[in-house]
Amino acid sequence: DLGEAFFAFRRYRADGNAEIVCISNLTDRPATITLPEQMTGSIWHDLIREADVADIEITFQPYQTMWLKKI
User: Fold this and answer.
1) What is the pLDDT of residues 32-49, one digit of tens each?
2) What kind and span of H or E run contains 37?
């Protein structure tokens, strides 16, 4: 559970070898999440911003969305 400010889902490639985690802040204010335990210990790449995400706490700007792929 990421809290009321966020909407998130996972999409898997048909062969199951890759996943994308989509997370959106649905509020008009910045909001911070702590990644679930199963996502920690890995580096993720935000496909929208073209930036790596290694922190377990991420602050999203209002209405920001990230598409995270494990690298």
Assistant:
1) 999 888 888 889 999 999
2) none
pTM of the predicted protein model:
0.87
Closest C-alpha among 1, 6, 3, 48 to residue 26: 6
- Domain with residue 62: its CATH number is 2.60.40.1180
Look at residue 65 and tell me if it is in a domain: yes
Sign (positive or negative) of CA dihedral 16, 9, 22, 35: negative
Strand partners of residue 20: 11, 69
Q: What is the count of structural domains for the chain?
A: 1
Residue 42: which domain range? 6-70
pLDDT at 35: 87
In a domain, 1, yes or no: no
Measured in Å, how far apart are the chain's first and last C-alpha atoms?
23
